[in-house]
Every structure is written in C-alpha cells, then in structure tokens.
Amino acid sequence: MANRAYNFNAGPAALPLEVLQNAQKQFVEYEESGMSLMEMSHRGAVYEKVHYETETLLRELMSIPEGYKVLFVQGGASTQFAMVPMNLLRAGTTAAYVATGSWATKAIQEAKLFGDVAVAASSEADAYKRIPAAEELKLPSNPAYVHLTSNETIEGTQWTDYPDTGSVPLIGDMSSDILCRPVDVSKFGLIYAGAQKNLGPSGVTIVIIREDLIAKPEGAVPTMLRYDTHAKADSLYNTPPTFAIYMAGEVLKWVKANGGAAGMAARNNEKANLLYDTIDSSGGFYRGFADAGSRSIMNVTFRLATEELEKQFAKESEAQGFVGLKGHRSVGGLRASIYNAVTPENVQALAGFMRDFQSRNG
Ligand code: PMP
C-alpha cells in the first residue's frame, strides 16, 4: 500500500498491515459462514473457536503457566484501575502502589475510592523520569497487593526487572508493553492490558489472573466488575467484544509468525536503540526525557531546546507523513510510540527525518 502513514500513534496504534489485509478479506463473510464474524452469535461454534483460539495463542506466546485464568473484559485498562481494588482490597489490608507517572497516578486515585492505599515507592520528585529500584519499595504492614505500571506510556519509562514481592501478589498494568518481550508471568498475581497498543483494536481488555485470587469480593460489587463472574464463564458471561477478540487473535498469529515474544523483543530493541542513538548522538539537539536506565522500548520521549522548535518538528514531520509524534498534552515534548507492529523501516525513516531536521535547525 503506497500511502500508508508513518504511524507513531500512542494508542490506538499501528496494526500489522498483513493483519488488516487478511481481516479485510474475511470482513464480509467469515470462513464460508454466510455472514461476517460481527453478525454471528457469541454462543455459536464459529465464534467460540475464535474465542478459545485467541486465548490459547496468548497462553502460548506469553508462556502463561497452569493456574492462571485469561479473561477478556471490557471497559479498558481504566476499568481495571477500579476492578483490582474492588476485588482484591479487603478490609484491614492496604493496597501498595508504585508511583511511576501519569498512569500509575490514575490507578492510585481510583484505588483510593475503595480503601486504604499506600505509595510504596515514587519517582515524582524526579519528574517521573525514572523507574524506582526494587530496593526502594517500602510495603505497608498488611499489604493486599503491590501494583506497578510496567510501561509509562506518557513519560516513556519502563520496568526491566520487576520486584520480587514474595507472597504479596504483584499486579502489573501492561497496557502499553504486553508481549513486547518475554515476561515471567509467574511473578505476577494479575496482569491487565487494554488491547489497543500491542494486541489489536480497542474494545477488549486482557486480564491474566492467578486462580487463588479469584474469589467473591467483599461488599456489593456489580456482577460485571467481579473477576469470578468472567472466570467462571470463560469470558462468555455476557456478550464479549467479538470483533476485537478476533482481531487480537489475528495479531497474535502475526506475533507467532514473527518469532513470538523473543522475536518482538529483538525487533523492539533494535527500533528503540536506533531512536535513542539518534537522540544521544545529536550533541544535545535532542534530549531524551527518561533517565537512560529507565528508557522505554515502546514510547520514546524527547525534547528540543524550545517549545517553538518542538512545534516546528511536529508540523514538519506531519507534512512528511509522520503521525502521532506530539507528546501527550500533559507533559509536552515529542513522543514516538513504536509498539510491536511499527516496522523497523518506519523507525529508520523517523531517524532519518530527525537527522535531517537537526541539520536544518541545529
Ligand atoms: N494504563 C496505561 C499504561 C495506558 O497507556 C493506558 C492508555 N493509554 C491506560 C492504562 C488506560 O487504558 P484505557 O484507555 O484502555 O482505559
């Protein structure tokens, strides 16, 4: 396709072209069923096959051990900010959160609606430029769980070594880095992620939950916001977002064909290194926002000397077919989101534009 944009959107974000083209072929009629997948019952055999295949592929690609349930729910990761405490924060316990940036802060604010919350570690004093070291974590006396944000989409920071929280369940918001690299799922009690960055279109949220954490919540929790509701029904308690789950399955097939989680890590590291090298070798023209040891391989955030120059960069890059490079409105600057499906060629084109822009304005 000749006129596909250089898409660096933060989410929803670029999907693999092959996946879109294949979905287009199947859009009007799915596998000789006489109808689109969107038109069929979620209780029928054709959809059920898609549903369970998507789950099986996710289990395989993330090496999810026995004893974990995979759930497909709705409401985005933002609903998980509430569902986690509603289900897991019990009276007499305190929820511990690591404050790493904008999304962790939202999770903390939401949890406070439901009970006692403690900040176990924070990089707020460093403008959220870094991920705290595991040793910085101070847990409250009776912790219900420890919550971290695996990748801060807005600041462009990412955990590399997750802390060992022993018998306290570790909860990870992996919305912006799920399946970007191999992860030891057994370290976590619960992982959640909106699909719209690495896994497909928006509309479905993945929850991976250790079975011992699935229990009847305390107090009155709406049926749809209980993990046990969805776990008992294999995510078919009510109508699931069938098309989003189908698309996630197609993206997972693409991940598998491209080397799985390890293949994604190699590809993502190469892309991220190219951009960080371009920043670091610019003699200060480009300045990376995140500390070197906390840099994200999904969201590369950087600044220029003045806001004026940043505006000019955004404008000129847009004119040349680059999309989504303006930083989040809350922090400014520039951001290139380079999720799994963003091609190395597109990242090379961006690095080329950056060098060219510098040569004209440096
Ligand atoms: N957590 C992180 C790390 C995110 O990047 C986002 C979305 N950008 C969210 C949570 C919120 O996700 P949703 O829009 O699916 O509610």
From TrEMBL:
<dbReference type="GO" id="GO:0005737">
    <property type="term" value="C:cytoplasm"/>
</dbReference>
<keyword id="KW-0032">Aminotransferase</keyword>
<dbReference type="GO" id="GO:0004648">
    <property type="term" value="F:O-phospho-L-serine:2-oxoglutarate aminotransferase activity"/>
</dbReference>
<protein>
    <recommendedName>
        <fullName>Phosphoserine aminotransferase</fullName>
        <ecNumber>2.6.1.52</ecNumber>
    </recommendedName>
</protein>
<dbReference type="InterPro" id="IPR015422">
    <property type="entry name" value="PyrdxlP-dep_Trfase_small"/>
</dbReference>
<feature type="binding site">
    <location>
        <begin position="77"/>
        <end position="78"/>
    </location>
    <ligand>
        <name>pyridoxal 5'-phosphate</name>
    </ligand>
</feature>
<dbReference type="InterPro" id="IPR015424">
    <property type="entry name" value="PyrdxlP-dep_Trfase"/>
</dbReference>
<keyword id="KW-0963">Cytoplasm</keyword>
<feature type="binding site">
    <location>
        <position position="43"/>
    </location>
    <ligand>
        <name>L-glutamate</name>
    </ligand>
</feature>
<feature type="binding site">
    <location>
        <position position="173"/>
    </location>
    <ligand>
        <name>pyridoxal 5'-phosphate</name>
    </ligand>
</feature>
<feature type="binding site">
    <location>
        <position position="153"/>
    </location>
    <ligand>
        <name>pyridoxal 5'-phosphate</name>
    </ligand>
</feature>
<comment type="function">
    <text>Catalyzes the reversible conversion of 3-phosphohydroxypyruvate to phosphoserine and of 3-hydroxy-2-oxo-4-phosphonooxybutanoate to phosphohydroxythreonine.</text>
</comment>
<feature type="modified residue" description="N6-(pyridoxal phosphate)lysine">
    <location>
        <position position="197"/>
    </location>
</feature>
<dbReference type="InterPro" id="IPR000192">
    <property type="entry name" value="Aminotrans_V_dom"/>
</dbReference>
<feature type="domain" description="Aminotransferase class V">
    <location>
        <begin position="6"/>
        <end position="350"/>
    </location>
</feature>
<keyword id="KW-0718">Serine biosynthesis</keyword>
<comment type="similarity">
    <text>Belongs to the class-V pyridoxal-phosphate-dependent aminotransferase family. SerC subfamily.</text>
</comment>
<dbReference type="InterPro" id="IPR020578">
    <property type="entry name" value="Aminotrans_V_PyrdxlP_BS"/>
</dbReference>
<dbReference type="InterPro" id="IPR022278">
    <property type="entry name" value="Pser_aminoTfrase"/>
</dbReference>
<dbReference type="Pfam" id="PF00266">
    <property type="entry name" value="Aminotran_5"/>
</dbReference>
<feature type="binding site">
    <location>
        <position position="103"/>
    </location>
    <ligand>
        <name>pyridoxal 5'-phosphate</name>
    </ligand>
</feature>
<feature type="binding site">
    <location>
        <position position="196"/>
    </location>
    <ligand>
        <name>pyridoxal 5'-phosphate</name>
    </ligand>
</feature>
<keyword id="KW-0808">Transferase</keyword>
<comment type="subunit">
    <text>Homodimer.</text>
</comment>
<dbReference type="InterPro" id="IPR015421">
    <property type="entry name" value="PyrdxlP-dep_Trfase_major"/>
</dbReference>
<keyword id="KW-0028">Amino-acid biosynthesis</keyword>
<keyword id="KW-0663">Pyridoxal phosphate</keyword>
<feature type="binding site">
    <location>
        <begin position="238"/>
        <end position="239"/>
    </location>
    <ligand>
        <name>pyridoxal 5'-phosphate</name>
    </ligand>
</feature>
<dbReference type="GO" id="GO:0006564">
    <property type="term" value="P:L-serine biosynthetic process"/>
</dbReference>
<comment type="pathway">
    <text>Amino-acid biosynthesis; L-serine biosynthesis; L-serine from 3-phospho-D-glycerate: step 2/3.</text>
</comment>
<dbReference type="GO" id="GO:0030170">
    <property type="term" value="F:pyridoxal phosphate binding"/>
</dbReference>
